Amino acid sequence: MWRPFYLLFRSISGVSLWAQRRFTRAGLLAVCALILTAVFGVDTSLTVAYQIFTFLLALLAIALVSAWFGGTPLAVQARLPHTLTAGERFVLRFTVRNTSDTLLDGVALRAEVGDPRPAFAQFKAGSRFPTYRGWIHLVATNRVADLEEAVVPALPARGTADVEAQGLALRRGRLRITGIASARTEALGLMRRLLPASGAADICVLPKRYPLPQLSLPGARRHQPGGLPQGSSVGDSEEFLGLRDYRPGDALQRIHWRSFARAGKPVVKEYQDEFVARHALILDTFGNTGSREDETAFEEAVAVAASFAWTIDTQECLLDLMFVGERMHTFTAGHGQMMPSRLLEVLAGVSLAGDSEIRTLVEAVRARREQLSGCVCILLHWDESRRALLDAIRASGATVLPLLVAAAAPDDLPPGIRLLRPGHIAEDLAAL
Fold first, then answer.
1. Of 226-235, 272-281, 419-428, which gets the smallest average pLDDT?
2. Is-contact 190 181, C-beta < 8 A?
3. Which residues pair with 275 in a beta bridge?
């Protein structure tokens, strides 16, 4: 049952997307009038609508043929940002050059984005029943940004100009621009000819962020077994103490080869163990992928996680971002490792893990709880498995800041867990 509806909805959306790209507003109005006159002009003895139908059909046929011929002598160099932020407006800048020896006018630039139509698996998982309303919702969910056309001013022969295209980032994710196309309207003003003018691009749209109050994450420095691969001078960093004779079990990477060659026996470098404050930012990704309430709460949870990742001073500590996707993921920022902006890029692509179990996250936290000084835990629901997660963190003596993103607090929610309500996240965070 799902497959025929999927093919039908995909075909209808494909025609609609093609018409929006190729027809001007006047052309779309002419197409709508053509359909209406076709319906009412079936009986030619009762109405003259068939004459209007014939006239409109002839106009659209001429426009189609006219738009098919002729090129646009335009060279475009795009200057696109590396990242955007969800919920904010942005500007795409282009340098346009007329490569012909004549005046060029009436041209616009379009940034062609990737196909927003869902795949069959997403269509089936995101709807309880195949309806076109549900299809429209999925298409809107996949649309990362709205982009406006950039009008190119009249360019003299071999002239150049800088143009801007306004846009609005709708949600986090990847804004895939398949190409920049030049659009030139034919003489009747009904259709446009689209020609590629620049290559593809991929822009990361970061999660939106909320302002946080002044927070201090308490917790003592913990020993980091094995040291830090790129340690800096923050805290009790791994420091070179001197040279000593080789002992069985010493790592070969610590052999000082120059001294080995001079002394004729193995000599190793000796370091001081590393102690540093290490905090975990745990994101609950376990929810119902078909529930709009869970999807809304999850998007707000990602925004809260992004706010903490951006605000916590990783110059003075380590920050581990932990969540479960297809598998367990851990990303560390600070102390010479990842930058906080990289954590935001990671959060831009995280999604609900509907088929996974929270036990995976609990076991990962238990495996490194001896290294953690504190933890910010962002939850979507409250149950016994999440209680076990908090108990696993507290068992090592680490301090915990538990946050629950939900429309209302459950009856069995224990004290100490702060509620963040979707739609009121900013004011709830300000009260922390």
1. 226-235
2. no
3. 223, 236
The pLDDT tens digits for 127-156 are 778 888 889 988 988 999 999 999 999 989
> In sequence order, what E strands does 129-233 have?
145-147, 150-152, 160-169, 173-185, 192-198, 201-206, 222-223
Residues 143, 147, 149: CA angle, nearest 5 degrees: 145
d(CA 239, CA 242) in angstroms, rounded, equals: 9
Phi, psi of 40 (to 5 degrees): -85, -15
Q: What is the pLDDT of residue 219?
A: 53
Overall average pLDDT of the 41-59 stretch: 82
Least confident of 159-173, 249-263, 286-300: 249-263
Q: Give me 394's structure tokens.
A: 């507290």
- In this predicted structure, the answer to whether residue 203 has a pLDDT above a threshold of 80 is yes
Q: Is 377 helix (H, G, I), strand (E, B) or coil?
A: strand
pLDDT digits 0-9 by tens, 290-329: 778 888 999 999 999 999 999 887 767 788 899 988 788 8
pTM, entire model: 0.79
| Burial (0-12, 13-18, 19+ Cβ within 10 Å), 252 | exposed
Domains delineated in the chain = 2-206 (2.60.40.10), 239-272 (no CATH), 276-430 (3.40.50.410)
Locus of tokens 């975990």: 280
Q: What angle do CA 101, 105, 111 make, to 5 degrees?
A: 110
Adjacent-strand bridge partners of 222: 276
At 210, list the tokens.
Answer: 């909320």
Of the candidates 349, 233, 367, the residue with the CA atom closest to the CA atom of residue 302: 349
> Residue 368 class from Cβ within 10 Å (0-12 exposed, 13-18 middle, 19+ buried)?
middle
